[in-house]
Amino acid sequence: MHFHRAHVSLGRTLLKTHLPRVIATSISLAATVTGAMLLVACKPAATPPTTAAKTEPSAQSQSFYASDFSKMPAVPAMTELGRMLFSDPALSGSGSMSCASCHDPQAAFGPSNASAVQLGGIDGRTAGTRAVPSLRYVQNVAPFTEHHFDEAVDESVDQGPAGGHTWDGRADTIHDQARLPLLSPLEMANSSPSDIVTKVQRASYADRFRDTFGDDVFNDEQRAFRAVLMVLEVFQQSPQDFYPYTSKYDAWLRGQAQLTEAEARGLAAFNDPEKGNCAACHPSAIQNGSFPQFTDYGFIAVGVPRNSAIPANAKADYFDLGLCGPLRTDLTEHPEYCGLFRTPSLRNVALRHTFFHNGVFDSLERVVEFYAQRDTHPEKFYSKGSDRKARKFDDLPRQHWRNVNVDAPFRGHPDGKASLSEQEIADVVAFLGTLTDGYRPQQPVGSREPAISRF
Ligand code: HEC
Ligand code: HEC
């Protein structure tokens, strides 16, 4: 089976939104603090754990964020420590790889090179199996659920699986996620948490750890490892770095910029349920006063072609099936989930050099063309069989083909034409270029009518 995405009516959503909130959004979002910050920052100064608390753990001490540090860590200090750790190659088994090697701050925390998958591991030569995602705009990702109900669309409709971090949603939180690359033999390849703590203890910033969490922070390895994961998580929630909302599209929503004709046509085709229908999964409208993330975090099988550049794919019987495995292991008994991957945000997508979970395409034109023509011209995208016909869905075993989404823009129009013309494909690509952060608006807020009132 495949899951449908009901199209959010732009009119309906926007009508509910008041103008002043639109302009205030960037400010209020910037002020949003995460669970990590709230729990840490709002707790009274930590007291050393009592014996009673040790034998009978309270709900709080079972929480990841329960602060049993002898000093209460402040958010700015944790952010700066996290920033240092994020770029420190000493924290890897090879001594030459940091988080930033794959998640480059100059590339919206995505990969800066054109490889479909990155090299890592103890020798720095082991290839991964998936494209590196941008780490921007994942601050609102809810933990994974198999049954998502969306009140903005129709709260009685089960929209299927949604949420969680990584392409298959297997990490519920950013700190759970950080454990994966730190310990993964394909990535930073540390042998154990204690290995990592030892490295932090030797690092130039070890004293800053003591200043932030207390002199005894390294006495207990588990607690020290928790501090490491926490500073990485808090850094990844820093608004200026990870959700700045400074794209041209944001400026346009605030009434500080004008879209070119091509960009405006591209936005219209992106939203149009009869054309791109992109907004059904990558919402573009302000919802409940929040600027759009360009993802609904839902899981969909798009049926992207197999990428022979990934070494793991040399084995003909290896398939990355996303939700149903092999990296994720709890849903392997659910064939209806095979081939489904989490919808990524399209913010900063124009900074990428490869696209989709396996990095199979190397330009946005190819991606949009694929959406428009997968079903009308499959021979443009898939490998060919011995009969020289396109082997459609060649990265999915046949029994899972029924999971592939066939809503618009797929299938094409009843008259056999693709759902987007060549011109519309170019326009959508132009529009996607407005989603890159770092645009400097020439006009002050309010100098032009905010775009929202024009929907
Ligand atoms: C060798 C390259 C590499 C390194 C080094 C690396 N990552 Fe990643 N990261 C990836 C890949 C690939 C994925 C997608 C994994 C998947 O879908 O299974 C990912 C996914 C993530 C995600 C999930 C984003 C989301 O919501 O989907 C986070 C968060 C993350 N990485 C943080 C980090 C941190 C923090 C570090 C350093 C401790 C780090 N990464 C180091 C390659 C890397
Ligand atoms: C039915 C839901 C759905 C619709 C409709 C949809 N997408 Fe996607 N999009 C996804 C999913 C899921 C992925 C990831 C698929 C994968 O990697 O296997 C994705 C990935 C992408 C990517 C790659 C991003 C990256 O980081 O690699 C781009 C670009 C993109 N979509 C643009 C569009 C455009 C443009 C449209 C409209 C023409 C569109 N999408 C319509 C669900 C959808």
Q: What structural keywords apply?
A:
455 residues; mainly alpha; Cytochrome Bc1 Complex, Chain D, domain 2; 2 domains; two-stranded antiparallel sheet; two-stranded antiparallel ribbon; 16 helices; 3% strand; binds heme C
Give the gist of this structure:
The protein is mainly alpha-helical. 30% of the residues lie in helices and 3% in strands.
Describe this structure in words.
With 455 residues, the protein is mainly alpha-helical. It has two domains: 10-29 and 243-454, Cytochrome c-like domain (Cytochrome Bc1 Complex, Chain D, domain 2, Orthogonal Bundle); 34-130 and 172-236, Cytochrome c-like domain (Cytochrome Bc1 Complex, Chain D, domain 2). 30% of the residues lie in helices and 3% in strands. It has 16 helices and six strands. The protein has helices spanning 10-15, 19-31, 35-42, 51-55, 59-62, 75-86, 99-102, 174-183, 193-202, 206-213, 221-235, 239-242, 248-253, 261-271, 364-373, 422-432; strands at 119-120, 126-127, 149-150, 154-158, 299-300, 341-342. The strands form three sheets. A two-stranded antiparallel ribbon has the order 1-2. Strands 3-4 form a two-stranded antiparallel ribbon. Strands 5-6 form a two-stranded antiparallel ribbon. Strand 1 and strand 2 form a beta hairpin. Helix 6 (75-86) crosses helix 11, helix 8 (174-183) crosses helix 11 (221-235) and helix 14 packs across helix 16 (422-432). The protein is globular. The model is unreliable at 6-61 (pLDDT under 50). One heme C (HEC) binds next to helix 15. The site of one heme C (HEC) has 27 residues, from helix 7 and helix 8.
